[in-house]
Amino acid sequence: MATQPISMNIIKQVLIRLSQQESIRSIAATLHISKNTVSRYKALSEADPLSVRELISLEDKVLNHRFNGGNPSYCDTRMETLKDMLPYIEKELKKPHVTSLLLWEEYRKDHPDGYGLSQFRHHIAQHIKAVEPSTLVKDLYQPAQKMLIDFAGDRLSYIDIETGSEVFVQTYVAILPFSGLTFITCVHSQSIELFLEATVKALSFFGGVPRILVPDNLKSAVKRTDRYEPDLSEGMNDLANHYMCVAMPARVRKPKDKALVEDAVNKAYRHIYAPLRNKVFYSLEELNEAISDLVDKYNSKRLTGRDYSRIECFIASEKPLLATLPECPFEFKRRTSLKVAPNSFVTFGNDRVSYSVPYRLIAQQVDVTFTASQVRIYHAGQCVATHVRSYVKGGYVYVDDHLPPKSREYRAYSADYFIARAEKISPEFKIIIENLFADGQPEQIHFRTAQGFFRLQKTSDPVLFHKACSVAISNGSLRYRFVKALIDSECQGFRQDPDELTPPSMHSNIRGKDAFT
Known about the structure:
4 domains; 4-stranded antiparallel β-sheet; 15 strands
């Protein structure tokens, strides 16, 4: 009688016990198999390029084929033919628009007696799983152990009501891998302030703190990447310390470390992006509200092949094990010291946004503390101004009472001051400066642009500057950037026609108030 093949469960038990340094004699006695058999499987596992965890994750047929040479179904002559083709098929499947159905049709054309479509697909799947096994076995994830973090590649957007322009935003995704519970929100950028603010919201959404935070290698989280000891950003370290947890970034070029969050991003495209594709939003808050509703539906949806949803799994198995949130949420703060400009504003940040300060502090040094959502300005230890943080590039945030009154007693600059200076240079330059201040907004907002015009006039050839001003008026575009571009190009492609010079308010080519700012 032929020897009965050993079951795959026994083989897997052998591999597990070998990985735990159990002796061959002990394994053979416990599993009731011969020591020679254990020694054989030990040699096979050591020679196999896959790890023990990867071997155990293989399906029984694949593992049997690797250790026992397969069963009769794998000894079929059709299988021998297909085996030679599998590397080619795997390579072709990675190409755009190539499907297994197309490859099967090509295969049957050359091998009419070959496998049917179902068996063809089965053997391809088994081959790919054996060559590129997944190490992310569900059992590797323990409840409340990790929170995976990443940003989606594709971006959503909303329409800014004031400017009418489309504002693109970044999509932040966090997932608890054991239950699959997912949190998604949009932020203006991947800056460290907004990244940390989104992480705080994610922890609040989950209602507790996992033991380990696993962000991708984002600049906001990791200062220097290293496989073994990455340097975390100061903000990421502060956040982890505040919540009494550990931050451990995913390894560089190790996509399996974050496969579940990548999968969550792909599902976000289907369950969030797709339903919102034809909707228009007019604020980030409105967009996030719609996302929140869809995320709730996604988390409440029954999992395929399961009788429970992500939220049900989370509540039953994971939420009780999360650490308690601290009383106060983490808030990342940055500090700087600035001098108040003559227009009573201080300007900072990558977006160069200006914030107003009481005019009595013009030319004084102030201390600025800012977070992702708020700006506080201090002088002599007292808070003198508080503003909501803005991300409009080059924008101004102000309180009317902060701005200087008309009296020259408090300031060196005014609209009249700049207009009078421009008039001494040329009538055309005066027209440009007059229209800079003619949009109805507080004149202090335009002081910096006016300074730019005068700096441009001072550093340019007088004849060329006069010509650029004339051409700008003729073309109905009095913006600083347009005038500067004319000077940089020496007005190439433009003809100066003094007879056609008219005040901008009467020129037929002028369109809207923004044409002169």
